[in-house]
Fold this protein.
Amino acid sequence: MKIVIPGGSGQIGQALARSFYAAGHEVVVLSRAPQAVPWRVVMWDGRTLGTWAGEVDGADVVINLTGRSVNCRYTPANRQAITASRVDSTRVVGVAIARAGRPPRVWLQASTATVYTHRFDAFNDEATGLLDRTESDAPDTWRFSVGVGLAWEKALDEAVTPHTRKVKLRTSLMMSPAPGGVFDVLLRLVRFGLGGRAGDGRQYVSWMHDVDYINAIHWLLAHEDLEGPVILAAPEPLPHAEFMRELRAAWGQPVGLPAARWMLELGAFFLRTETELILKSRRVTPGRLLQAGFTFQFPTWAGAARDLCRRWRERT
């Protein structure tokens, strides 16, 4: 197969590109910067049509992962850049597919599980989950993130691609031992004795092991009956306090100092980031994957954490 990955220079994109390339597929990454990788990298700006569109014409698969990092303060300028990077890239990919003489058979489009409401009482899945449209009492930063996710998906819905199956990848926290990712940051806290509960620790953490994420992408490509929203998350989210306790146990760290909400807000201010990823309760479950028969290698966080810690040690 020929697989085109717009925005494939990040951690998730690199992992997917390595997997497809190792399996013998032709991989083309669309990026704003050149990279020293074994697959082809084609330049694009993520906004306008260019010669890169010729890579889409005749491709079998497009996996659009483009999106500016949300690890920043949500200033007006950053909000505009975060939104535009997602919506503009989705729109222009849709135009390229619509104009292709031989359009790809499937378009996997990145989205986010943060579109679901902050809740403790029940799981959110694709069939019964509550989209976070009405939480007027939620922090403004949370409402912004939800708005971005919904605008992202709307751009996909508006693309007229009748010959291309479209899948929304509502992704939770993808856990990988690679440098700079979410797991790397959390493990750093644990290693320095700071990996205790955040706030009251009741908020749910939805996550997915990188091996299961990659397997799920391959699986979605093979199952042509699935389209629309698909949650990419392990089947057993757990409260933050338990999540960090399991990670400390996997690493062998007996101490984990807690952080009150005001401490997190202060730290986020000085680190130029936001606390949403830590404090919002993302209790999502992959209903469609499970119903369709996908098998997780790492369904529980305890087992996943042990494997990730082992691989992190081997990497260093």
